[in-house]
Write a structure and sequence with these properties.
The protein is an alpha/beta fold. It is 31% helix and 25% strand. The chain has a single domain, classed as Vaccinia Virus protein VP39 (Rossmann fold, 3-Layer(aba) Sandwich). The longest helix is centred in the N-terminal third of the chain and has 21 residues. 37% of the residues are buried. The structure holds zinc ion. The site of zinc ion has 8 residues, from loops. Zinc ion binds next to loops.
């Protein structure tokens, strides 16, 4: 299956001049047969998918084989539990620092509600008013609703409400948004003046991107439409009255693992040969690659994953 693609300007500064980086296909999931191009804006250095699908075709890039939410949910590996615990400490400290007394949270792209589960554990530390999620996968929605959360089954750009939230979370979501401007117009209305918007996304300032180039998992070709750089992202956010309050570099050993898998895929089959050993379920590899990330964070101030804490500009 082929879809229509159109050249686009830089989505952050709208400049028409960009430097071609590479072209690649969806070798992992074979969603569509098209060749996609990534480019870097010559003005603001933002990296983006420069041959762009139409909104109605985006869904075709997400075949059912892509994400097995149930699989992740039931994974009980040590690596998964350690990550969960670190995430919990991080969110607890982040919210405590803001002085928020009562949490009303919205997790955009909440999946089966794993992050909402983390927030729920804060009960006892900080009062909780509401925990809501937004998700498009029918299966994931059902699981999250089963846990008692209010879930909105829609895209962010189609979400309509008068409600305000003081903790909005977007974990590995912003890079997938088709219409960044429409989405941030809505986010600006959703966030209360004292609230925080927590965004976690791949970070292009890292060793693994330089090493793996087009095979780097941060591109997740062709599903990651934007790879942000703090400076140009911060400038663009000003349009929607947001400012970057804090930036935390995070450990992401799975990016090393899947970058290797992308490179090792033979004849388009990731279940064949060495490629099949390179998955997030491989505890040995998770432990093996973690020091690489610790090294680049501590000594180079680089990492392939970053968490931005945003606040309203005038707060
Ligand atoms: Zn630009």
């Amino acid at each position: 299956m082929y879809i229509d693609l159109q050249k686009r300007n830089c989505p952050l500064c709208n400049d028409a001049n960009s430097k071609f980086l590479f072209s690649s296909k969806d070798y992992r999931y074979h969603s569509v047969e098209n060749e996609f191009e990534y480019s870097e804006c010559t003005k603001c250095q933002h990296i983006f998918l420069s041959t762009y699908p139409k909104k109605e075709d985006v869904v075709k890039l997400y075949p059912p084989t892509l994400m097995n939410y149930g699989d992740i949910e039931t994974s009980n590996s040590i690596g998964y539990r350690v990550k969960n615990h670190l995430d919990f400490i991080n969110i607890r400290n982040t919210i405590k620092k803001t002085g928020i007394q009562k949490i009303s949270a919205l997790d955009i792209g909440c999946g089966t509600g794993l992050y909402l589960d983390q927030l729920k554990k804060l009960n006892g530390h900080i009062a909780i008013e509401t925990l809501e999620g937004m998700e498009i996968s029918e299966h994931a929605c059902q699981v999250a609703k089963g846990k008692g959360y209010t879930i909105h089954q829609c895209l962010l750009e189609d979400f309509q409400t008068d409600k305000k939230y003081n903790v909005i979370i977007m974990q590995q979501v912003i890079e997938h948004l088709h219409d960044l401007d429409a989405s941030f117009k809505i986010l600006s209305k959703l966030l209360s003046p004292d609230g925080i918007l927590i965004i976690e996304t791949p970070n292009m300032n890292c060793l693994d991107r330089a090493i793996f180039k087009k095979y780097w998992e941060g591109y997740h070709t062709p599903r990651h439409f934007n790879l942000f750089r703090k400076k140009s992202f911060g400038t663009w956010l000003g349009k929607y009255s947001f400012a970057i309050h804090e930036m935390k570099l995070k450990i992401k050993p799975v990016h090393w693992i899947y970058s290797f898998q992308n490179m090792l895929i033979v004849n388009g089959d990731k279940e064949k040969g060495l490629a099949r050993f390179f998955t997030y379920k491989n505890t040995f590899l998770l432990l093996f690659f973690t020091p690489f990330d610790l090294f680049q964070i501590l000594f180079l101030r680089k990492s392939s994953d970053v968490q931005y804490i945003l606040k309203k500009k005038d707060s």
